[in-house]
Amino acid sequence: MSEIQAITARTTGDAGRYVLEGKGKVFLSDSAMIRRVPSVAPNPIEFLVSALASCALASVESDARDFGIVVRAASAEVTAVRDEADESRFSSILVTLAVEGVDQPTAERLTTHFRDHCPVYNTIRRGGPITVEVTAVA
Known about the structure:
This is OsmC family protein. Pfam families: OsmC (PF02566). InterPro entries: KH_dom-like_a/b, OsmC/Ohr_fam, OsmC/Ohrsf. By secondary structure, the chain is an alpha+beta fold. Helix content is 33%, strand content 27%. The protein folds into 2 domains: 1-42; 43-138, GMP Synthetase, Chain A, domain 3 (2-Layer Sandwich). The protein is built from 3 helices and 5 strands; from the N terminus they run E-E-E-H-E-E-H-H. A 3-stranded antiparallel β-sheet has the order 1-2-3, with no helix packed on it. Strands 4-5 form a two-stranded antiparallel ribbon. A hairpin with a 5-residue loop joins strand 1 (8-11) and strand 2. Helix 1 (44-67) packs across helix 2 (104-117). The N and C termini lie far apart (37 Å). The mean pLDDT is 92.
């Protein structure tokens, strides 16, 4: 059975600030496009890029544990570049992983699970179906 992820977002009355809730978690998001003051909460793009980075690290740690590999530390840097010709998309996304305490073949082996199984990575890489529904509420 497929796991369903659901997040509900709502406005707060503070333009450009949103409350997001799902699975017992509550967090804020800010939109620089609307807010006229500095943002304190991540914006939607930062959430997407952060999800990709944390999924990479979770995959590396999970595989290391499953294979009995000792990793001293790991880091992931995700660089997303907005497409100048079409700002509604990225022209490139680079995920740079550093895995400490292992050799290069082992680091690559630990990264394979991320590339093969992370839904964030694979949805971005392959695209995916998306539907938008709207209801006007009087």
